[in-house]
Amino acid sequence: MVIAVAAGLSYLRGTIIRRYAGEYLALKVPAPNAPPGAPQIVFNGARLHFSDAILHHILFKYHPHYSNLDEHNKAVFIMRLRAFIRHKHFSIYTHEPFREMIVLSAAAAIQISFGLKRYLFPWFRFICIHPSEYLAVNPLRILAGNVEGTSISLSWRHLFDDMQQDTDGVNVGLHEMAHALHRQHEHFYGIRGSTFRTRFKAIDNLDETIMQRETRAATKFFPAYALQNIHEFWACSVELFFEKPDTLYN
User: Fold this and answer.
1) Angle at 128 between CA 84 and CA 145, to 5 degrees
2) Across the chain, what does the average pLDDT equal?
3) What is the C-alpha separation between 177 and 78, in angstroms, rounded?
4) Quick one: pLDDT band at residue 96, thresholds 50, 70, 90?
5) DSSP 35
6) What residues have CB less than 8 Å from 163, skipping those under 6 apart?
7) Which 8-state DSSP code applies to residue 16?
8) What CA–CA distance (Å, rounded) separates 140 from 85?
9) For residue 183, what are the contacts with CB-CB under 8 A and spacing of at least 6?
């Protein structure tokens, strides 16, 4: 089975990170979903120095949630974004990596964790960014994003497009970061994450209630796969919380 990875990114004329490309190639990121023979450029976030002006420009232009924040919260968002980038390695599978790829993938993590004290996702060291959907193994499938081991993988095309259409209830960045946040609290924080784990368990009862309602409803609110298990229900609920909050409340 062969998948043709879309290399053309002309729909987003971002700034190519050419001046960094030769400096950070020593690290090999463990990425089981990397397409065979794909180029891999790895950036150590601690050595990427984007100014506040650049971060603000990218977020204001491409991240509607950030654009709607007040000035104080914009400053907090950028501060957290800078810290998150500093603690990660970004593995990008293209010959021409855009700085927007790093900034907007990190922004998805900051958006979902903005009300939390812990927002660095320390269990996850690697953010892997594919140009488009990619082939994964064990089992064999085509994905737009997934969380595995210490890596969070995303399709750039899906991440960018979903971020611009921020009222349709679909956002692969928020979806995968929701999975990552759950795993972070389950497997890394231990007893310190007990509050999150306790509240997460309460979703099980809600899941059953929603499933019964969706079965009877003529128009479905949740996608079908959201009701397969509690993990997908959680991730889809996070997407809807940010993109369709009024409908979700009702």
Assistant:
1) 105
2) 80
3) 18
4) confident
5) P
6) 62, 63, 64, 104, 108, 171, 173
7) B
8) 31
9) 123, 147
**pTM as predicted:** 0.81
Nearest CA among 163, 112, 109, 106 for reference residue 129: 106
Q: Cβ(44)–Cβ(50) under 8 Å?
A: no
pLDDT class of 20 with cuts at 50, 70, 90: very low
Asked whether 78 and 50 are in contact (CB, 8 A), the reply is no
Alpha helix positions (H), 28-137: 52-62, 64-67, 71-86, 99-112
If one counts every other C-beta atom within 10 angstroms of the C-beta of residue 46, the result is 12
For helices 52-62 and 156-164, what crossing angle results, to 10°? Answer: 70
Return the structure tokens found at 226: 């959201």
Q: What is the pLDDT of residues 52-85, one digit of tens each?
A: 999 999 999 999 999 999 999 999 999 999 999 9
